[in-house]
Amino acid sequence: MGVMTWLRQQGGARNDAAQAAQVARLAYQAERRARSAADTDEGDGLDFASAIRSHQVWKKQLAEVVAGEDHPGFDLATVRRDDCCDLGRWMRGSGSYRYRGRAVFRELFGTHAAFHQSAAEVLMLHGEGDDQLARALMDRGLFALNSVRVQGLLAQLFFEAEDSAARLLLANKVVPS
């Protein structure tokens, strides 16, 4: 499933169609650029398309847990932590080293942490037997909103990093006289 399809399916996107459309456009453009780039490490260790796919798989597994399937690693303590997934490890490692001065990175950091808190809330509701409310949070609640925001901020960070790299290349380009 592509980024555009996934974003259209998100419940949070129904709450603010204009914002969701903008996020979808950014994500689609970033995924296209990431796929066409010769160097997939443009984000200094973070492959945007891979991060999107990883996020999709993780959300799918959480939905399966709420539906009654067993997935190791989806215990409340682990899900609540924002450093137990690939994106969280990158943000606390090489991503922080390179991008911590950028406002979009700081916003992504906070939104990603909020995403994990809302995922923990989904698991708590499931544990209490309220699967209907857990699914509602996943489909159109805070979890869905945070998920869409993480996707959009990742796209924005990717574009900013790409633009910075392009500016640096242009600044260092020797123009024949």
Summarize the structure.
This protein is an all-alpha fold. The protein has one domain (3-163).
Which structural traits does this protein have?
10 helices, 76% helix, mainly alpha, 177 residues
Spell out the blueprint of helices and strands:
Elements lengths: L2 H7 L1 H5 L1 H20 L11 H19 L9 H5 L5 H7 L1 H6 L3 H25 L3 H10 L1 H30 L6
Helix pairs in contact: 1-3, 3-10, 8-9, 8-10, 9-10
Model description:
By secondary structure, this protein is an all-alpha fold. It has one domain. About 75% of the residues lie in helices and about 0% in strands. The longest helix has 30 residues. The radius of gyration is 17 Å and the shape is globular. The protein starts with a helix and ends in a 6-residue tail after the last helix. The N terminus is likely disordered.
What fraction strand?
Answer: under 5%
Find the structural class using helix and strand composition: mainly alpha
Largest β sheet strand count, sense and barrel closure:
none
Count of helical stretches: 10
Mean pLDDT: 77
- Helicity, as a percent range: over 70%
The whole-angstrom Rg is: 17 Å
Low-confidence stretches: 1-7, 37-43
User: How are helices and strands ordered from N to C?
Assistant: HHHHHHHHHH
